[in-house]
Specification:
Layout (H helix, E strand, L loop, with lengths): L12 E7 L6 E3 L6 E3 L10 E10 L10 E6 L15 E6 L7 E4 L17 E6 L4 E3 L5 E4 L11 E9 L9 E11 L12 E7 L7 E6 L11 E6 L7 E5 L5 E6 L10 E10 L13 E11 L6 E2 L3 E7 L7 E4 L2 E2 L8 E5 L9 E3 L5 E4 L10 E10 L6 E11 L7 E2 L4 E5 L7 E8 L11 E4 L9 E5 L4 E6 L11 E9 L7 E13 L5 E3 L13 H39 L23 H4 L33 H13 L50 H12 L7
Length: 718
């Protein structure tokens, strides 16, 4: 309520209200000054309002007092329940946790004023989830309430939590939330086999490394705590089998390490142990985390292919062995009960296999062609054995046949076959060391001996010194040699091998006499070099030859350039042979001018100069001009040309190649005579051009043109 001291209660004062909520939330009685709330108030929405009030004169509308400000505070009541803003909750706790193990902390929020009364004082409690879990009423911390909760018994728990204000007293408002708690796994259970004995049946034809069976131990734990490792306990059959763990199914996969044979052993028994990989030390007291079971394997008899006595056969045979000679045998047998006979044959793959044959019943291998070690030293092929009772069951074995060498080739000197000796050589000087090669291959290594042939041993020039290590030296036997007396010597050397039968050959070495310096360095071995100066070395000879070659190249280039220049001059001369054209710049007098140029000089062969010297060649000697017979004015141009051709053909001074000859002769002219104005009539008499009409359609335009000129002639009188 507002009241002014100037208000006498006679209605002369008016009260006004402004500020937060004026007119919408609050209103004022203008006469009495009473303030009323016109709608419900919510402290949580707006806890207080700031208003301004003033007293105004009703008549003058002027304020009686200064404006005053006041605050209206909204008093809280318990009208909001606690709320779990983060709910519902999800939590986990390991199984077998002790009592009081921390799980989760929940928190509820009350919008009421915490400073006024107990409206915002919250207390927590469990409505559902006991006796497994408990909650602190003040903090909201959830803990385990029972020991040894087992995940394998129950894994999921749902706990209902209540939060109540007014300190939990009667009349307080409450809110709830749900907490889903999961027990996580720990390795508290060892693996266990569901049965103590596992029986497996395995065919004896099973391949090594193949899986022959599976066994499984059960572990109620989860994840890595349920991972199992299987091992075979050492004992009977442990070396024939192996076991691994299937990571997806945690089963033990038994695999074969060695082949099985029903005829050798029909059954195997061994033990398998299953244990956890990840152990928890808290549960060691429970007992060993492993289990053992027995595995019995029965081998099933299968129809198997024949078995060779060896994994591979190696044989030897001498080359040139007669066809049909037996060189060895292979053996295979059927080990099944009631064994069957075996047949043998060669696995034909290429033509090499045709060198041998095999007896289908006995398995003996014989040669089918003559063998040559130098062509093929080793043969490798396969033999197949099959059962008579079941030909589809076959086995294969490799056979290697080595061809042994027979001493059939004589040894020969290894290159070079030619050597040299200095003219100033001394007796006993080694000029060449020779070795030998043999196409035969001896298993113990060849031994070669060297000597001179009988006919050469008496000559006093050279000898052979055998070093007895498969080499020999060619030594001189005289003091000095002369190229002028003998340039080449031929030395026959006999070489023998040590194999049986002994093979030998005579090899002729060529020895060339050369000029050497005092140190034994060869200077020249050519015959022409004998006549050169003594002090001229090989390098000097090369320099001289090089200079000569350079001079020859220069001469060839010079001659080629001169010939090219001469050819160009000749071509220029040919181009110069053309008609003479006379230029004159005066205009002339037309048909009346008869003195400008004598056209007869171009037509009359008499006007040609008879003493012109040929310009297409360069004359070697001076010749007198040839006298040509005169040509008549009426000579036809064909006769004129033929005459000139004959003169050139018999001319001894003409060049031996085609040339251009020009003859300034126009002939006797055409039927129409010359059309040039130079040779026209000089009189002013009228000319008749009617004859142009007789020349045909080609001259029709010319005839019409001159006909019109005649018809329009102003001087003509008709």
């Amino acid at each position: 309520k507002l009241h002014s001291d100037l208000d006498k209660g006679v209605g002369t004062v008016k009260y006004t209200l402004s500020g937060d909520g004026a007119g919408t939330v609050f209103t004022i009685d203008e006469t009495t000054g009473d303030i009323h709330a016109i709608r419900s108030l919510d402290r949580e929405e707006k806890p207080f309002y700031t208003l301004r009030a003033q007293a105004v004169d009703v008549d003058t509308k002027k304020p009686l007092e200064p404006e005053s400000e006041f605050i209206i505070k909204v008093q809280d009541i318990n009208d909001n329940e606690p709320k779990f803003l983060d709910g519902p909750y999800v939590a986990s706790v390991p199984e077998m946790s002790p009592v009081g193990a921390y799980v989760l902390q929940v928190k509820a929020t009350d919008a009421d004023d915490p400073t006024y009364g107990n409206s915002a004082r919250v207390v927590y409690s469990i409505l559902q989830g006991q006796p497994y879990f408990s909650i602190d009423p003040k903090t909201g911390v959830i803990r385990t309430a029972l020991p040894n909760m087992d995940r394998e018994v129950k894994e999921q728990y749902q706990v209902l939590i209540q939060a109540k204000d007014m300190g939990g007293q009667l009349g307080g408002l409450a809110g709830t939330t749900t907490v889903n708690i999961t027990l996580t796994d720990v390795n508290d259970n060892p693996p266990r086999f569901p049965k103590s004995i596992f029986h497996l049946k395995v065919p004896e034809s099973s391949h090594v490394g193949s899986a022959i069976g599976r066994i499984r131990a059960v572990d109620p734990d989860f994840g890595k705590n349920a991972e199992i490792e299987y091992n075979i306990v050492p004992g009977d059959g442990g070396n024939l089998f192996d076991i691994t763990t299937d990571e997806n199914t945690q089963e033990g996969v038994i695999k074969l390490k060695k082949p099985l044979d029903f005829e050798t052993k029909k059954a195997y028994t061994f033990k398998v142990e299953a244990s956890n990989l990840h152990l928890d030390h808290r549960f060691h007291s429970v007992g060993p985390f492993k289990d053992t079971a027995t595995v019995k394997i029965n081998v099933l008899d299968m129809d198997e292919p024949p078995v060779f006595s060896k994994p591979m056969y190696t044989m030897e045979v001498y080359e040139d062995t007669p066809v049909g000679t037996i060189i060895g045998a292979v053996t295979a047998q059927d080990l099944d009960v009631g064994s069957s006979s075996v047949r043998y044959f060669i696995d034909w793959k290429n033509d090499v296999d045709s060198y041998f044959t095999i007896d289908a019943t006995e398995g003996t291998i014989a040669t089918n062609e003559l063998l040559d070690r130098e062509s093929t030293a080793q043969y490798n092929f396969s033999i197949i054995a099959s059962k008579v009772s079941n030909p589809l069951l076959t086995s294969k074995v490799n056979v290697i046949i080595n061809v042994l060498d027979v001493n059939e080739f004589p040894p020969e000197i290894s290159v070079p076959y030619e050597t040299s000796v200095c003219e100033n050589a001394k007796p006993g000087q080694v000029i060449q060391t020779v070795t030998a090669a043999d196409k035969d291959l001896s298993p113990t290594g060849q031994r070669f001996s060297f000597r001179l042939s009988a006919e050469a041993s008496n000559k006093p020039n050279f000898t052979v010194h055998d070093y007895r290590n498969n080499t020999a030296g060619i030594e001189t036997r005289r003091n000095g040699y002369s190229r002028r007396q003998q340039e080449l010597y031929f030395l026959p050397v006999v070489i023998e091998d040590s194999s049986y039968p002994v093979q030998s050959s005579t090899n002729t070495m060529t020895i060339r006499v050369c000029r050497c310096d005092s140190d034994g360095t060869i200077l020249s071995c050519n015959v022409e070099a004998i006549f050169l100066p003594v002090g001229l070395s090989t390098g000097a000879l090369i320099a001289i030859l090089l200079c000569i070659a350079i001079l020859l190249v220069i001469v060839v280039l010079y001659v080629a350039l001169r010939r090219q220049k001469k050819k160009n001059t000749l071509m220029t001369s040919k181009e110069d042979i053309r008609d003479n054209v006379i230029h004159y710049d005066d205009e002339g007098g037309g048909e009346e001018d008869t003195q400008a140029f004598d056209i007869g000089a171009l037509r009359n062969p008499k006007a040609i100069e008879d003493n012109k010297i040929r310009r297409d060649i360069k004359p070697d000697t001076l010749h007198f001009p040839r006298q040509r017979p005169p040509v008549e004015d009426n000579t036809d141009i064909r006769d004129f040309i033929n005459q000139r051709l004959q003169e050139n053909d018999v001319d001894p001074t003409a060049p031996p190649y085609d040339s251009l000859a020009t003859y300034a002769y126009e002939g006797n002219g055409s039927v129409a005579e010359s059309l040039s104005s130079i040779d026209s009539l000089t009189t002013e008499a009228d000319q008749d051009y009617d004859y142009l009409n007789d020349w045909g359609p080609r001259f029709k335009i010319l005839a019409d043109m001159f006909g019109e000129e005649e018809s329009y002639n102003p001087d003509k009188v008709t």
